[in-house]
Write a structure and sequence with these properties.
Blueprint (H helix, E strand, L loop, with lengths): L3 E4 L14 E2 L1 E3 L7 H18 L3 E3 L6 E2 L1 E4 L8 E5 L5 E5 L2 H14 L1 E3 L2 E3 L5 E3 L17 H4 L2 H5 L1
Parallel strand pairs: 3-4, 3-5, 6-8
Antiparallel strand pairs: 1-6, 2-10, 7-8, 7-11, 9-10
Helix pairs in contact: 1-2
């Protein structure tokens, strides 16, 4: 069994619970050999945080917000678990690389972004898809975002 770890140590600021902390910086720590997919997941995380608020994601220095990402089989195909980690941190564990991506997506969607910075989401739990196919319907004929946005933005 292979385990890949990527640390985003999401530690609460000043000893406060993580969900109560808003931060202007997030520390991203990748494993020594993260693999292409895990590196890309890190870039997605950083891009989404930095586009949505004034917080900055870095790989060096200290930051009040940090999270641990890991790929550990045993959850279920494409499944993920988000749990409290040591020291008030958050662990996002994917069964596989896709599961990790979906876990990061859930975490980002449950987090808050505002001028004060980034506030980590409080959702905790496990999610495993019931079926092996995931899909999305883009209603492209209603003059909504997916109809009118530049293709590059839709791809992001």
């Amino acid at each position: 069994m292979r385990t890949t770890r990527c640390l985003f140590l999401l530690a609460g600021c000043c000893g406060l619970p993580l969900h109560a902390s808003t931060a202007l910086s997030v520390r991203l720590v990748l494993p020594e050999q993260p693999g292409t997919m895990v590196e890309n997941i890190g870039r997605v995380f950083a891009r989404q945080v930095e586009q949505r608020c004034d917080a900055r994601v870095s790989t060096t220095g200290l930051a009040p917000v940090t999270a641990e990402l890991a790929v550990t089989p045993g959850i279920g195909a494409e499944g993920f678990r988000i749990e409290d980690g040591p020291g008030g941190g958050v662990r996002i564990v994917g069964n596989d690389e896709r599961g990790l991506l979906y876990g990061v997506g859930k975490f980002l969607r449950s987090s808050r972004y505002d001028p004060a910075g980034f506030t980590a989401g409080a959702w905790r739990g496990t999610s495993v898809p019931q079926k092996p196919v995931r899909g999305i319907y883009f209603a492209t004929h209603f003059h909504n975002f997916y109809h009118d946005a530049p293709v590059e933005e839709v791809q992001h």
